[in-house]
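Blinded run. Sample ID left blank on purpose so nobody reads anything into the name before looking at the predicted structure. Input follows.
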Amino acid sequence: MKEKIRTLHLASFNGNIGDNANHYGFYKKIEKINNFCFTFDELEIREFYWKKRFFNDSFVDLVNSYDLLIIGGGNYFELWVEGSPTGTSIAIELELLKKINTPILINALGVDPGQGASSKNIDKFKCFLELLIARNDFISIRNDGAKKAIAEYVGIEYLQYLNWTPDAGFLVDADEPSDYYKNKSYIAINVAFDMEEIRFAKDLNLLGYTDFLSTFKTFINNFLENYSDYEIIFIPHIFRDYTFITDILAILDDEVRRTRVSVAPLLHGKDAIRDIMSIYSGAKCVLANRFHANVCNIGLEVPTIGLVNYRQIKELYAEMLCDDYVDVTVCDFDNILLSKVNNKLNGSSVRDTRLRDSMNKYYIEHCEKMGEWLESKFNEH
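Blinded prediction complete.
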């Protein structure tokens, strides 16, 4: 009989469908690990950001009432959170962490220095990592350049204690598109608008947001002129993405936005992924600069082109040894992007499964390591 593991899962479950896709893939795989049967209680990490909950003694007591604590996946090893005792959004005092008796599984976290990484924060993060390592907790980082960031900012010596894994968003499933989308030929576009000051930083060599919009408009017009039977579907993942959608709609020709463009709904929660992923699955090609909009569509075998204006996306493709991305911070990126889209749409009608299959293989190996760690922990009790 499988051992029952009462599990508290600390992560983001609302407000970003990419997180939901990641959890979906993670649950699908972890529940197949032999000898264990998991029950999950979700704890929304954003409640700590909203000051509705706190990393205090009550949190310690809550965690200690469970058999296992899972943290993530998500981008929680960001290295910029100055007021945090760990330098990250997991803002727990180390003395409180020492009071936690429950094993901790750090699940596929991003290590993201893109918003800054002060020496003070790096020192705090090292102390945090060293305590987790001393506790023999399971620490895993995802394929968004996290290994490179650890080596560059924290220290290559720490990598021996960290487990690398593809993000579980690669494992997402999708229903058939609804009738509205099923009968259309379309490309789907997701442009992230959070971290505007970083993604659209204007200097002598990089496009600012206004020039980005203008260049993207040129791409859309040229694409629709070349593909007269196609439409464009904009897909928001979080509320901030609507800023870009509203701005690009405002500058498109009225006929284009009324007859060739649609906008998917902004949904949230674990049930949202079925609707949104079904829209993505019907696309002939996806253009995206959000992490999970790339990861999930590669997993769905949809031809995908990364839009790079943040290091995370470029590092994602570098780790996959793939160059299906376009730097959208440079002038005239519209021509390069249109050429990439042409190659995708005019290529083989058989969707390429190699990236998805390789990520799935790596994830199975990762699950084997998790299983070995769980066996070691629960055989101790």
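Unblinding after everyone has recorded impressions. The longest helix spans residues 354-378.
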